[in-house]
Design a protein that fits this description.
Layout lengths: L9 H7 L5 E3 L9 E11 L6 E11 L3 E3 L1 H9 L11 H13 L3 E8 L8 E7 L19
Antiparallel strand pairs: 1-4, 2-3, 3-5, 5-6
């Protein structure tokens, strides 16, 4: 019996070439605070190779560009086979959003599923110089886990 070559499926091909796609945004006043929740994120622990599961919470205020949602979905999914430490991932996402969109404000919270009885939340925030406008709410640290 002949063995079939495993070809990448349509979705895997899209994820492999994922890039954040900027779209022009003309609304300047009032400033617009945009919030995304990406609840099914996965990466790999660079040390063990075990999967890490997370929810990304992303707030941003556009300058002139917004992100196309399908491109954001594919971009988030592109991390699933990458080895990335918890503390590094929000910095990578922040750098890519800043490069693609040049936003006035960004806050990212990586809310990791507990692993090894350790709950990890990582928060990064960026504001342009003299930024005055809406901001994300304070991220409440969860103290009630047993």
């Amino acid at each position: 019996m002949k063995q079939q070559r495993s070809a990448k499926k349509y979705g895997a091909k899209q994820i492999a070439k994922a890039r954040l796609e900027p779209i022009p945004f003309s609304f300047k006043d009032p400033k617009t605070l945009i919030y995304f929740t990406c609840p099914e994120g996965t990466t790999l622990c660079p040390r063990s190779g075990f999967p890490d599961f997370w929810t990304a919470h992303i707030w941003y205020v556009p300058s002139d560009l917004i992100v196309e949602l399908k491109s954001l979905k594919l971009y988030i999914n592109s991390f699933r086979d990458r080895g990335v430490y918890h503390e590094e991932l929000p910095h990578l996402i922040l750098a890519d959003l800043r490069e693609a969109l040049n936003p006035s404000y960004v806050k990212i919270v990586m809310d990791y599923t507990r692993r090894g009885n350790i709950q990890t939340d990582v928060v990064v925030e960026f504001k342009t110089k003299n930024y005055q406008g809406p901001e994300a709410p304070v991220w409440e640290v969860r103290k009630n886990f047993r």
